Amino acid sequence: MSNHYLALKQHFTQISHFEHFSALGDWDQATMMPMGGSEGRSDAMATLAGHIHGMKTASWLADFIDAAATESLTALEQANLREMKRAVMQANALPTELVEAKTKAAYRCENAWREQRKHNDWQGFKPNLEAVMALVREEAAHRAAATGLSPYDTLLDKFEPGITSARLDDIFRPLRGELPDLIRRVRDRQASEQMAPLEGPFPIAAQEAIGRELMQLLGFDFNQGRLDVSSHPFCGGVPGDVRLTTRYSEQEFAGALLGVIHETGHARYEQGLPLALRGQPAGAARSMGIHESQSLFFEMQLGESPAFIDKITPIINRHLHKSFSAAELTYHYSRVKPGLIRVDADEVTYPCHILLRFEAEKALLDGSLSVADLPDFWSSQMSSLLGINTDGDYRNGCMQDIHWTLGELGYFPSYTLGAMYAAQLRAAMEQQLGPLEELIRQNRLAEVFGWLETHIWSQGSIKGTDQLIQAATGESLSGQYLLSHLKRRYLGE
Amino acid sequence: MSNHYLALKQHFTQISHFEHFSALGDWDQATMMPMGGSEGRSDAMATLAGHIHGMKTASWLADFIDAAATESLTALEQANLREMKRAVMQANALPTELVEAKTKAAYRCENAWREQRKHNDWQGFKPNLEAVMALVREEAAHRAAATGLSPYDTLLDKFEPGITSARLDDIFRPLRGELPDLIRRVRDRQASEQMAPLEGPFPIAAQEAIGRELMQLLGFDFNQGRLDVSSHPFCGGVPGDVRLTTRYSEQEFAGALLGVIHETGHARYEQGLPLALRGQPAGAARSMGIHESQSLFFEMQLGESPAFIDKITPIINRHLHKSFSAAELTYHYSRVKPGLIRVDADEVTYPCHILLRFEAEKALLDGSLSVADLPDFWSSQMSSLLGINTDGDYRNGCMQDIHWTLGELGYFPSYTLGAMYAAQLRAAMEQQLGPLEELIRQNRLAEVFGWLETHIWSQGSIKGTDQLIQAATGESLSGQYLLSHLKRRYLGE
């Protein structure tokens, strides 16, 4: 008999039902809700979040988890129990007063930041960020006490279970070593190429029709999801009803389409999570890095590959009534140029933005960097990584992202972890199925998705992160696959 | 001190936060959700409903309500406590097993009905309806024991607090007596008029633009609400974010527009509920009949009045690129014709459909009518009220509505109560502000809405139903105002 396990399973199913409404509330707020609804929504969301937190910190859970561990469980059930334990531990890590204090400070910081950033107002922003950082350090200390990890590692672990900063140092080292020179070489090579810009305007209805056709091509199930518009693209909803968004500009269409392809990667992961574990902790996506690996596999490995651009060029031309060549689209998709802003960065320079933030977070957490010294640190890192001086430009420097205003440290590495996982997954897939370019040209995309479904999507959180990647690729995460991918695509090496 | 009252108030605010998601889930399901999301949604909605039910039946509530009654409360607080007591009593009225059995039987009956109705399959439908009716009788017996009311009156009281079937008999008597002859006279009068049909097609985008412009004219606040499409028009959402829907046909536009005007009446009531009592039982709409009075005031008293049709004719023509005259629109808006289907009925014949259902419900509840005898009863009532024989036509007879399949008896009278309240409110408003036709022609709609806001919307559930109508109109509900309105509009009397 496994009575305690069954009671826990039922409890977590109920939690997932409340989380269903939390996901719906978030999606609706970003896509549908009129401004006047925000006060009522935020009150309701706060009550819901409190209720879910209460369910995850119920005092009987610890005893039930211990008792369930002595019951006769299948391997799946054991994995689920492990993830339940992790969820309960995470929920219990912080005292309520700290959660409330951090929520309040983050809200104040983010709200003021929206104006301060526009005015490059570092002096106004600094004390707010200092207040948030002080609470983040407190959070990390509490989590460190609960987990035995180092303070910064506990923050990483929230998003990428199992990763440590020592391991990230190792994985990131080759990128840090090779990227600056690689970028210079790519820039030199691209300097000789010249093509005219793509002439717009591009009607939004046509862009949306292209997006839907690409989603279909990428196997998105519209019976189990939607495409809408929001000011920041995201993939939300619940596994049986996955809702992704993009944003359109009439002047430029690649951004919206790459956004759709990116979010479709997230969406297929969610749609492909194991049905038998739906609502259970082990049935959820493994980590932020793995999630990002799916979106970046779709966007970068697949979406920006020459064969895929060949395939979608007629679709784009048909809806836009244009006659762009695949070479033109490829040209504009693949420009590499160091810039100030992370979210605007290309595939090659993007990791530099993450390496900088990772170093800053480590130093902010261990106290070797103060908030006051952050702008100088930023400028010196940007200089050495991308050859850009950011002195005095706070708005496009350390004030550009929302993450730190919210006290979310430890999240940034996920972006580059995702790019590295994606490149490594592609290499493993190609070992088994043959070159991705060939699979695309031979209309064998279903095999590509089948491989991802088998090795990643259907695995949910059954395995640990490292175990998942080992099982899928035969080895632990390595930064070399991303470097090889970039050299092959941008230098023909 | 009023500690118990404050604890109750806080508890009901929390309940309203969960009800926020229940409203959002309903709206989303009808307008946005892909089919594949329905299983996950219905599981989540069931958990949420159970949680809300649990909060309303918490064992400490009765003691707190008793204790609060001894505290020093304002008149508003006393009204709120009275409504809390009513909500708790309603939630506790039925044993959980009965609620579950009824939900199950209703689900089975409704699901099968969707097909059975298409095939006029009375024999298949009958046993399912009998099962539902048996449980409705059980429900009524439980409610009667808890309230001291008669079984059918307890069902009426769910939707129209304070009403009884004896009182409805009195109010409906003049309608039953006068309507059949009135309909004949209107039909005779209209027989001499002839106009060609309005030539379509009418593009849906243009109809939607008209709808939005009419909503604005009717004072709908788009900062606090939305207009969308669903297969059955409704008004949902929450007071700060009221979401109404309509449905469009390219062949005919009056249906969609009258639907928008109707739902805007519901919406303005919701948007105008007392802000100070938001989330509290006394801050909610008073009853289904009062709610329907607002939608019917907007649709029938206002929307179908000659001055209003004059005002909106240019708007309609501008969007549709037509040159209809107000007389043409009025002609097509005001045809009176007895028909089989309640939801298609005009203002004059509609009450007959309700009188029939009210008689049937009374008889089904007191046992004098069996489900088996329902079709004969239906046909004989349709004959005497509308001169229509429905023998053998179950699909367009007693199988036409969803209400009974769901076990919702007691709801139907609300529709005609609403029409009667609306006519009576108009008469009282005209005593103070002058003829509605003049107010419309003089662009004084804001005064009309101001009057409704003062007397109905801002009152929420502070007063009882009868008290509310007495305060607004100087007397209790009377059926005479509706009859006078119909005679004036359709016979010029």
From TrEMBL, chains A, B:
<keyword id="KW-0121">Carboxypeptidase</keyword>
<keyword id="KW-0378">Hydrolase</keyword>
<dbReference type="Pfam" id="PF02074">
    <property type="entry name" value="Peptidase_M32"/>
</dbReference>
<protein>
    <recommendedName>
        <fullName>Metal-dependent carboxypeptidase</fullName>
        <ecNumber>3.4.17.19</ecNumber>
    </recommendedName>
</protein>
<keyword id="KW-0482">Metalloprotease</keyword>
<dbReference type="InterPro" id="IPR001333">
    <property type="entry name" value="Peptidase_M32_Taq"/>
</dbReference>
<keyword id="KW-0479">Metal-binding</keyword>
<dbReference type="GO" id="GO:0004180">
    <property type="term" value="F:carboxypeptidase activity"/>
</dbReference>
<comment type="similarity">
    <text>Belongs to the peptidase M32 family.</text>
</comment>
<keyword id="KW-0645">Protease</keyword>
<comment type="function">
    <text>Broad specificity carboxypetidase that releases amino acids sequentially from the C-terminus, including neutral, aromatic, polar and basic residues.</text>
</comment>
